[in-house]
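Subject: for your reference before the review

Hello V.,

The reviewers asked for a structural picture of the protein, and I figured it would be easier to keep everything in one thread rather than splitting it across files. Below is the amino acid sequence we used in the manuscript, unchanged from the supplementary table.
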Amino acid sequence: MKFTLSWLKEHLDTDATLDQIVEKLTMIGLEVEGVEDKGKMLAPYVIARVVSAEQHPNADRLRVCMIDTGDGKPIQVVCGAPNARAGMTGVFVPPGAFIPGKNMTLAVGLIRGVESRGMLVSEFELQISENHEGIIDLPADAPIGKNYAQYAGLDDPLIDINLTTNRPDCTGVNGIARDLAAADVGAFIEHAPKVVPGTFPCPVAVKLDFGQTHPLCPAFALRLVRGVKNGPSPEWLQKRLMAIGLRPINALVDITNFITHDRGRPLHVFDAAKVKGNLVVRRAQNGEQFLALDGKTYTLDNAMCVIADDNGVESLAGIMGGEASGCSETTTDVLIESALWEPLNIAQTGRKLGINSDARYRFERGVDPNFMQPGLELATKMVIDLCGGQPSEVVVVGKAEAIEKIVDFPQSELKRLAGLDLGLVEMRRVLSKLGFFVAGQGSRVKVAAPSWRPDIEGKADIVEEIVRIVGVDRVPSTRFSRGETPRKPVLTALQVRTRKAKRALASRGLVEAVTWSFISKSQAELFGGGGAALALANPIAAELSDMRPSLIPNLVAAAQKNADRGFPDTALFEVGQIFKGDQPEDQFTAATGVRRALAKASGSGRHWSSKSAPVDVFDVKADALAALAAAGAPSQAMQVVPGGPAWFHPGRCGAIQIGPQNVLGYFGELHPRVLEALDAEGPLVGFEVILERIPEGKAKATRAKPVLELSPFQPVSRDFAFVVDRAVKAGDIVRAAQNVDRKLITGVTVFDLYEGTGIEPGKISIAIAVTIQPRDKTMTEPEIDALAAKIVAEVSKRTGGTLRA
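And here is what came back from the structure prediction:
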């Protein structure tokens, strides 16, 4: 909703500055999206006289003009306008000023060898009209040296507010002024339309014909004004419309546009000579054609409301008039229509046909029913004042009245809902200025909503009106009661895991991606999906036909697209939903990532200071473990075992599990066959872990961290090398050593693998370092030897290995 400051002041008597008005508008809920102050932009533009205009020595259509701007120092300007001549008065722009019509900042120029130190501008270059055939030619008495914006009235700031859908009363400047007056910004100026008596019966009748269907038009008012002289509207009206971005058409149409924005009351005018017979308001027929004023032909259906005559459809009700009966310069008799329309039907029709008009914007929000006839009277008065003519009597069919809304309002409700403690006198003052009627003196009063406020439904709406007008800054700050018991976490365990996994992966250099939840059937089958239960009944695209069983395919596609566009070293991750079936328990949250080419965690791409190496299985193994650890998986319980799904390369993949029954996820190098099917090039490695499979931690008695326990005794490290069969897993040796004494043994790591000379074929030597941390006393050598013997015995028992000599 756009309006100028001077327009607002026609309805609001105020001395407030522009900044004060803008601030108050936002404070009362009419958010200001922007303010355009042309006066500031046009400040350098001055009225100047052309002292001389000589022929350019090097161009037939250019003139070298000397310009007097009132300071006695002539300025040379090269001008190509056909009307540039000595003695004329125009508008001069100095270098450094912005030219809105050309979207450029003017500079000193050299035009065909002659210096030009400014410009004489046209109305088009100032964007005040479409006239670009010549420069502005002002009257001879225009004051030389004065600011042109002030002289021409172009220094009027334009305010643009963002209206919420529940405030149809503020779709007119009149309603905005009422709100500001209630907020003590000024005094509201009431311009109540006066009745214009008719001098003859209206020759055109109106009928509401909806048969047995729901009526789409509650009321309709019409009158004829004959003997009008249509033409351009007066300058003040044209400027007002152009200021808010509307193009003046002719006086009759401009009047309806003005009332639409001034009072929030859309109207329509028909050329009476083009209307055949009487008017019928009805539903359109299926397939009926309508040529609208925007020059487009629309195909209608019986869910839409139209105004028709004997010729057919003349207007799409409440949205746009028809070209066949539009008013032109030759119009002498005009029918003025003011009606009420069903808001929901207007919205549905406009959306279905793709028409956005000022009338639709207001009717779909709901206009004031009680202003239907006053709006018609106001339009009649303006038509007679600007175009002359004689009005007929008003024809009204249907009933235009607002539903009476009376709210039983206890004064305590304001304190309960908003924390404000106001007396009845102040509440009554605020509501009365907004147009509400308040009856009663006790603790409960009756509040009647005005006809222009269809959004008022109950007590909470009354509280909202009072709070927004007196100011939310008056609502006291009040602490919420914490209660005696500790507050429960707001986020669920899965939400916490999701956030922590994202942070961990981002910290490892992966970039988060958000991809479709759908993939093609062939890709779904590659990753264990593709079943009928997960096929979409109505896919948005043929290649997005199935719910994804894994996040890897879309991430691989994204990585390949980056490579195709010159970014080969890509590391992406996504934490999202995957689908193993169509039941709720078959939906999981996966943390998935892929790395391509040289996108290692230590740094991407080639660099002279380090050896460039392609990504490998250990990069994504580290990513997967980092995500799981951040999400709360117990690191000491996790096991890494070889093997994985078919989409990973055999021998270059692994699984992360907590026992054989709880597989948390997989990592590895993608199989060449899968890459070929996905139309991607390697090297590409990836991982996918399921966050729901992380076991819940035990509930702690307190949220405080436990006391840090540091042993005062020196830790001891012992190395062991075991010769075992190649099939034995290093993890089994580590776990066997740890299980000997979990209190004393605080760390077991693998530091060497060897096979070859001195080792039997089919065997391998695995060396581990065991850290022993005494707790109660310094361990003696015999005690350490005894623990070492237990480690050797336990590893031999569990793996069949022998201590290497």
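For the response letter, the relevant points are probably these. The chain has a mean pLDDT of 92. The two ends are 90 Å apart (CA to CA).

Happy to draft the paragraph if you're swamped.

O.
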